[in-house]
Specification:
By secondary structure, the protein is of the alpha/beta class. It folds into 2 domains: 117 residues, 3-Layer(aba) Sandwich (Collagenase (Catalytic Domain)); 235 residues, TIM Barrel. The protein contains 14 helices and 11 strands. An 8-stranded parallel beta barrel has the order 4-5-6-7-8-9-10-11, surrounded by 8 helices. The longest helix is centred in the first third of the chain and has 27 residues.
Length: 364
């Protein structure tokens, strides 16, 4: 009996609710694990060719059965859904032991297929967008007022689909303030990435606030924005000690570096979890030949870092045009973008600006 294309509804309930269905439709008391209601049976079955029916699963019973069998809840739920789906296809284990055995075998096949599809989908997952809201704070600090608020902007960015928020707490507090960081830690629903220099004052603040991870960057008082990658090779002992402090607090560490082989290897050696490859030199290339050369260095760096077991992100100077060159670079898990999104938001609004960038990243 081959399955056909169709639609099914899935309802997850507690034991009390499935007991009510069990009593009403099967005249049996107490809960069961799964029930299936076909829409292809009875006098109106011909009218529902595109609809298989309904599957009702008790999550409470599934959890008990998973624990007894030494399975995860997801594994047990997958088996029950597959079991219910087979009932909608006309199988019935109560008709005979032989059919019960067939259903058992088919259930295993379906669960395995579901697992393969899930693994395939995970491997094809597109990179994430993390939005830097520093420039919102820069505008606010221009008049030392209260608006625009980077905390509110972060919320809008997340609602638009951003999967991370980035802020850089500088020693001179030129944009992001301590208050911003505290409120963001309380309100960010995705992942909060604190960019920071290796100053002891900022390290202590980070250890207290506990962002999801920190990104160590070079910091110069006179620069307008971060101009290059962190020098890892020449300060491995110090960085290793700093990273160890964060790891003891269960905070992952990313290092913002140029895509140079020695820096990437040193990042792994000092214990970093992530490297963010500096894309500013590529973004600022004066001509196409230079852009291609600098992009190739980033591509090779991403491959090297991933091969060393490091997670890879990229950022600085990326915009709605130059990001398109990153198509096919599966090693990069996250793009950190701020300035171009905020500039675009002036014209179209923050929600649309974020959604447009997410759309571009989704096509890479």
């Amino acid at each position: 009996m081959e399955p056909q294309t169709g639609e099914v509804s899935l309802l997850l309930v507690e034991d009390r609710e499935i007991s009510r269905y069990n009593r009403r439709y099967r005249q049996r008391s107490g809960p069961t694990n799964v029930l299936a209601f076909s829409l292809r049976e009875g006098p109106f079955g011909e009218m529902n060719r595109g609809l298989w029916g309904d599957i009702v699963v008790s999550t409470e019973t599934a959890a008990r059965e998973a624990q007894e069998a030494g399975l995860s809840l997801n594994e047990r739920l997958a088996a029950l859904i597959a079991h219910g789906w087979l009932h909608l296809q006309g199988y019935d284990h109560e008709r005979s032991p032989a059919e019960a055995r067939i259903m058992e075998l088919r259930t295993g096949e379906i669960v395995e297929r579901m697992g393969r599809e899930q693994r395939r989908n995970i491997s094809m997952t597109k990179a994430r967008l993390a939005v830097n809201v520093d420039h919102v704070a820069t505008l606010r600090q221009a008049r030392r007022g209260s608006e625009p608020d980077p905390v509110l902007a972060a919320g809008f960015a997340e609602l638009a689909g951003a999967e991370g928020i980035i802020v850089h707490l500088r020693e001179d507090r030129r944009h992001i303030q301590d208050r911003d960081l505290r409120l963001l830690r309380e309100t960010v629903q995705t992942r909060l990435n604190l960019e920071m220099g290796a100053a002891e004052e900022i390290i202590r603040i980070a250890l207290k606030v506990k962002p999801d991870f920190v990104t160590l960057v070079p910091e110069k008082r006179q620069e307008l924005t971060t101009e290059g990658g962190l020098e890892i090779v020449k300060q491995q002992k110090n960085l290793a000690r700093i990273i160890s402090r964060f790891h003891k607090a269960r905070i992952d560490v990313s290092l913002f570096i140029d895509a140079e082989p020695a820096q990437i290897q040193a990042s792994r050696d000092v214990g970093a979890d992530i490297v963010e490859l500096h894309t500013g030199h590529y973004a600022n290339a004066r001509n196409e030949k230079e852009a291609v050369k600098r992009f190739e260095r980033i591509r090779e760096g991403a491959e090297q870092a991933a091969g060393l077991g490091l997670k890879v992100s990229a950022g600085h100077g990326l915009n709605y045009v130059n990001i398109k060159r990153f198509a096919g670079m599966e090693e990069i898990e996250e793009y950190s973008i701020g300035h171009s999104i905020m500039a675009r938001a002036i014209y179209v609004g923050l929600d649309q600006a974020v959604r447009e960038m997410i759309g571009l990243i989704g096509q890479l």
